[in-house]
Design a protein that fits this description.
It is a single chain. The chain is built from ten helices and eight strands. The chain is α/β, with parallel strands linked by helices and about 325 residues long.
Length: about 325
């Protein structure tokens, strides 16, 4: 008969275990394992054990990257004695600005041995020989100060990042039963976003049991793509996502080209205005330096003028004082 409570089942199992151990030992009592209590263990041992356990637990719980700012590891290109090639193609930077204000291309010195390149760098003022292209035959190196080379490289990367603005995805939301005026507003906003070079996500929202009219949603999105077909095209087909239906309209290549050309023209105009401002400021400074000092000569002229010339003279005044 099975026991009625779990406690009885545990007691019954323990009694069976004791009997089996007694039989296996030949009637001798089973050995009892000694478990030290807290009273039998010294306090110092207990404290050190608990401290070690807590420290190990804390170390195990602390995960992830260490605190503080992210550390960036700089990867330096091979330079000077690190270059293993026997012969290299050497170039030096040309910092002479052109008429447009941009620096000229690097000046090529030709192919020479690595030892000659190092000697040339030392001759030019203790510069560095930096490996630019290792895969070419022979490898291309550049004689330049490494700190200046790194500064120019970071400056170019920042400029490229600033100029290469990725297109954003703008969204236009509406209902399948949108009115004519509201539809015109959505078309106007979508065309404005596309003319800026951005992609547009057109979304039709359904509420409650309106989902059964999904055909009207497809027709609305197709109509919108047809009205904007001169400046954009639909990517794929409209998709249903839960209670929403959407499609992506991307600008045509000619629209993207016009946006990029306008951006380049604006950048050129800004640089031109900046250069003209610098030239005007330089001319003003030169004119100030070249202006004669007329204050001293004016004082001398005033001193040379006689009293009679200042007050005027006539015969009556002369007879009176004489």
């Amino acid at each position: 008969m099975a026991p009625s409570t779990p406690l009885k089942a545990v007691l019954l199992a323990s009694s069976f275990t004791s009997i089996s151990a007694f039989i296996s030992n030949g009637g001798a009592p089973a050995p009892v394992a000694f478990r030290p209590t807290s009273a039998s263990v010294p306090t110092s041992v207990t404290t050190s054990t608990s401290a070690t356990t807590s420290t190990s637990l804390f170390a195990g719980q602390r995960r992830g990257r260490p605190r503080g700012p992210l550390r960036t590891i700089e990867v330096k290109p091979p330079m000077n004695d690190e270059i293993k090639a026997e012969s290299v193609r050497v170039s030096v930077p040309n910092y002479t600005p052109t008429s447009s204000g941009k620096p000229q291309k690097d000046e090529a010195l030709g192919i020479m041995s690595t030892a000659d390149a190092l000697a040339k760098a030392k001759e030019l003022g203790g510069l560095d020989v930096i490996l630019i292209n290792e895969n070419s035959e022979p490898p291309v190196v550049k004689i330049v100060d490494y700190s200046k080379y790194r500064y120019e490289k970071e400056k170019k990367a920042k400029e490229l990042k600033k100029n290469s603005k990725t297109s954003e995805v703008k969204e236009v939301k509406m209902s399948y039963k949108i009115d004519v005026h509201d539809y015109g507003v959505r078309i106007k906003n979508a065309s404005k976003f596309i003319q800026q070079g951005n992609r547009v996500k057109c979304t039709v929202q359904f509420k409650g049991r309106e989902v059964q009219h999904e055909k009207l949603g497809f027709q609305l999105l197709d109509r919108m793509a047809e009205d904007l077909t001169k400046m954009c095209s639909m990517e794929g087909k409209p998709k249903r996502e839960g209670r929403n239906m959407s499609c992506i309209l991307s600008p045509r290549p000619e629209v993207t080209k016009a946006v990029n050309d306008k951006k380049r023209a604006d950048d050129k105009q800004k640089k031109k205005n900046k250069r003209v401002g610098k030239e005007t400021k330089g001319k003003k400074d030169d004119s100030k330096d070249a202006a004669p000092d007329i204050s001293g000569s004016a004082d001398e002229d005033v001193n040379d003028v006689s009293l009679d010339e200042l007050l005027g003279s006539d015969t009556t005044t002369e007879n009176l004082f004489n």
